[in-house]
Design goal:
By secondary structure, the chain is mainly α. It is 63% helix and 0% strand. The chain is elongated, with a radius of gyration of 19 Å.
Length: 98
C-alpha cells in the first residue's frame, strides 16, 4: 500500500507549528511566552465591545497558555471529526490501536 498525505496534514502541521514557536522564541526571546501580550492586546482591541469576563483575564493569561488552549481545542476538533469516521469505516476494534 501507499501512504498519500494531502498538503495539509498532521505531520506537516506539527512541523510548521514547532518551527513557528521556535522563530517566535528566537525573535522575541524565551520570556515572551511568560508575558500576557496576546490577551492584553485582544482586550485593548475589543475595547468597550468586549465581554466583561475578558477584562478579568487582563494580565493573567500568558501567551503560552493561549498556545496550550489552542492545541487542546485543535486536538478535540480532530478527535471529534476523525474517530466517528474510523468507527464507520473499520468498526470499534480499530480504536484499540489508539
Amino acid at each position: 500500500g501507499k501512504l498519500v498525505l494531502p498538503p495539509f496534514n498532521g505531520p506537516n502541521e506539527g512541523l510548521v507549528m514547532g518551527a513557528s514557536l521556535s522563530f517566535i522564541s528566537f525573535f522575541y526571546g524565551p520570556m515572551f511566552w511568560q508575558q500576557t501580550t496576546w490577551t492584553d492586546g485582544a482586550i485593548a482591541f475589543l475595547g468597550d465591545k468586549g465581554i466583561m469576563i475578558f477584562s478579568a483575564m487582563e494580565g493573567r493569561v500568558r501567551n503560552l497558555d493561549i498556545v496550550v488552549i489552542a492545541s487542546i481545542l485543535a486536538l478535540i476538533q480532530e478527535l471529534l471529526g476523525k474517530v466517528p469516521s474510523v468507527i464507520r469505516s473499520y468498526g470499534k476494534e480499530a480504536l484499540r490501536t489508539l
